[in-house]
Structures are given as structure tokens and as C-alpha cells.
């Protein structure tokens, strides 16, 4: 069994892959920058307990973290639980991606993982969208990572409105009723702006990226906000909740032998 941990800015996702490469559980914990090594280890133990899985069955682990202050802490916590160091997505890891970037290891490890999975699972060229704390959109052509667009995520946009405009209240994105395009209350107007605005931004960017690609693209989206936003998009977008996890599993396989020798 392979343990995969994805530390994002909002959530830390924990997945356990069985011998056939299928997820036997997928768990989400909140990301807390101030967690100690022991707290991280206790939380992971709790996840195994919750899903009735054995820590002793884990043969190896892989970690992606885009929260620098937690990378070493989580590495140590996982290492303590499974008895060997996890592979950490970063410099030295073979990805198979030809990353067109000025500073190579600046690209977020979650973006590296979702790109590796998209190349494996979907026709090229592709646009990969991750709607988490930030919304990222990447263009992939074959194994070439052409570049990225970074935008504030849904919740960040909503929080910025209420924090910076005195008369706008803090509200939640969740409503039972469908969000009308034209709000007749301040809250509906804010929700429309953020939801339809995000969907329109994504649709518009897909068009621009398709122009750059010079041909039609496969579009795949993941992340905690994706399902909410895709409902309002006009492009045909595949929803793949497990893209980062699948990428981590593929990266583990690509690097397992080298990691064992290290
Ligand atoms: N189960 C959920 N239901 C609704 N919204 C969610 C859920 N989980 C996360 N979110 C939203 O998605 C965002 C986090 O998504 P996620 O992909 O986990 O981000 P990150 O990788 O940045 O931690 C949060 O801003 C939150 O608004
Ligand atoms: C773009 C991100 C902030 C997304 O993080 P997330 O929303 O998944 O928490 C993260 O991938 C990151 O910090 N990237 C480093 C900069 C880059 O990818 O160019
Ligand atoms: K995450």
C-alpha cells in the first residue's frame, strides 16, 4: 500500500492506494500551518483508525506540500509512522515533464502531480484546472508543461469582498437555491459575481489557451471548488476529483527504485 499526502493551503488530503493502484480511502483534513510533528502524526493515525486501515500495511509514501512551513513537519510525521522517509515531490524527483519555466522548482508540487496524471489519463493538448485556495490553469502539450495562470480562488475572492468593502457582509458560498445571475440582494449579487465571474473567467481563459495551443484542448478540472464552478461553465470540462492523488501515485511509481537506493 502506498500513502499519498497532499498539503494544500486549505486542506490536506490523505489517500491510501492498494496494490492495484486504487484508492482504498481518501480523507480531507484542514491545513493548519502551526501543527507540530506529533499533531500531524496523530491526525494521520486518526485517519487510518477512521477508515479501518493498518499503518503497518504501508510500503511507501509520497508527499506534496505547497505550504513550506509544513513540508518538513509532515515529512517527519509520515516518516515516524511508516518507519522510512516519504518521497517528497520537489527537486530530484523524476516527473517526465518538460517544464518550460524560468525557475524550475518554483512550480507547485500539486501542479506537477496533477499535470503528470493529466498526461497519463487524457488526450493532449490539455488544460488542467485546479480550483483550490488559488485557481491554477496549466497548458500541457505532450509531455511539455507550457505554463501556468494563477488566480485567486473562489473563497479568497468572496473573503476579499467582505473584508475590503465595509458594507459587504461575510457570507458563505453555499445556498440551497440556485444562484441567480442578477442578484436582488447584496448577498445574491456577491454570490453571482464570484460564481458566474469565476466560471466566466475559466471559460474565457480556456478560449485564450486554446488559441495559444493552436488546436482544441481537453479540459480537466479538480480541487475543492471545481464541482461548484463547473455547473456554470459553458465549455465541456471533465471533472476529476482524484487528479492530484493519481499524479502522486504515478510519481511514486516513477521514482520508487531510486528512492529505495537513496
Ligand atoms: N467538501 C467541500 N465542499 C465545499 N467546498 C469545499 C469542500 N472542500 C473544500 N472546499 C472549498 O475548496 C477550497 C479548498 O479546496 P482544495 O482543493 O482542498 O484546496 P487546497 O488544495 O488549496 O487546500 C476551499 O476554499 C473551500 O472553499
Ligand atoms: C498555486 C498554488 C498556490 C495552489 O495552491 P492550492 O490552491 O492548491 O493550495 C500552489 O501550487 C503554489 O504555491 N505554487 C507555487 C507557485 C507556482 O506554481 O508557480
Ligand atoms: K488539497
Folded structure, characterized:
40% of the residues lie in helices and 23% in strands. It is an alpha/beta fold and 262 residues long. The protein has 2 domains: 2-88, ATPase, nucleotide binding domain (Nucleotidyltransferase, domain 5), CATH 3.30.420.40; 98-245, Nucleotidyltransferase, domain 5. It has a 6-stranded mixed sheet with strand order 6-9-8-7-10-11, with helices on both faces. A 5-stranded mixed sheet has the order 3-2-1-4-5, with helices on both faces. A hairpin with a 2-residue loop joins β7 and β8 (134-141). α1 crosses α2, α3 packs across α7 and α4 crosses α5. The longest helix is centred in the C-terminal third of the chain and has 28 residues, at 186-213. The radius of gyration is 19 Å and the shape is globular. The structure holds adenosine-5'-diphosphate, the ligand CC(C)(COP(=O)(O)O)[C@@H](O)C(=O)NCCC(=O)O and potassium ion. Residues 6, 8, 11, 13, 132 line the site of potassium ion. The ligand CC(C)(COP(=O)(O)O)[C@@H](O)C(=O)NCCC(=O)O is lined by residues 8-9, 66, 106-108, 110-111, 130, 132-134, 136, 148, 150, 153.
Write the layout of secondary structure elements.
Elements: E1 2-7, E2 11-17, E3 23-30, H1 37-50, E4 60-65, H2 68-82, E5 87-88, E6 98-99, H3 109-121, E7 126-131, E8 134-141, E9 144-152, H4 154-164, H5 186-213, E10 218-222, H6 226-230, E11 238-239, H7 243-261
Parallel strand pairs: 1-4, 4-5, 6-9, 7-10, 10-11
Antiparallel strand pairs: 1-2, 2-3, 7-8, 8-9
Helix pairs in contact: 1-2, 3-7, 4-5
The chain binds adenosine-5'-diphosphate (ADP), the ligand CC(C)(COP(=O)(O)O)[C@@H](O)C(=O)NCCC(=O)O and potassium ion (K).
Adenosine-5'-diphosphate (ADP) is lined by residues 8-11, 31, 132-133, 153, 155, 223-225.
Amino acid at each position: 500500500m502506498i500513502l499519498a499526502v497532499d498539503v494544500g493551503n486549505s486542506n490536506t488530503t490523505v489517500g491510501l492506494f492498494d496494490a492495484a493502484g486504487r484508492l482504498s480511502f481518501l480523507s480531507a483534513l484542514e491545513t493548519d500551518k502551526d501543527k507540530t510533528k506529533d499533531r500531524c502524526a496523530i491526525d494521520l493515525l486518526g485517519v487510518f483508525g477512521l477508515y479501518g486501515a493498518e499503518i503497518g500495511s504501508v510500503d511507501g509514501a509520497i508527499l506534496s506540500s505547497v505550504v513550506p512551513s509544513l513540508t518538513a513537519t509532515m515529512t517527519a510525521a509520515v516518516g515516524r509512522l511508516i518507519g522510512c522517509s516519504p518521497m517528497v515531490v520537489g527537486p530530484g524527483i523524476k516527473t517526465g515533464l518538460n517544464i518550460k519555466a524560468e525557475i524550475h522548482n518554483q512550480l507547485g508540487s500539486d501542479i506537477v502531480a496533477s499535470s503528470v496524471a493529466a498526461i497519463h489519463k487524457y488526450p493532449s493538448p490539455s488544460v488542467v484546472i485546479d480550483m483550490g485556495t488559488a485557481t491554477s490553469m496549466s497548458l500541457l502539450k505532450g509531455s511539455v508543461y507550457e505554463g501556468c495562470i494563477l488566480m485567486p480562488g473562489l473563497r479568497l475572492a468572496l473573503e476579499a469582498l467582505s473584508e475590503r468593502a465595509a458594507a459587504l457582509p461575510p457570507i458563505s458560498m453555499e445556498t440551497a437555491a440556485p444562484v441567480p445571475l442578477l442578484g436582488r440582494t447584496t448577498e445574491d449579487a456577491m454570490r453571482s459575481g464570484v460564481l458566474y465571474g469565476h466560471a466566466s473567467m475559466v471559460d474565457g481563459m480556456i478560449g485564450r489557451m486554446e488559441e495559444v495551443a493552436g488546436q482544441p484542448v481537453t479540459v480537466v478540472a479538480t480541487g475543492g471548488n471545481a464541482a461548484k464552478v463547473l455547473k456554470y461553465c459553458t465549455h465541456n470540462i471533465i471533472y476529476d476529483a482524484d487528479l492530484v492523488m493519481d499524479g502522486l501515485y504515478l510519481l511514486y511509481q516513477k521514482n520508487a527504485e531510486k528512492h529505495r537506493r537513496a
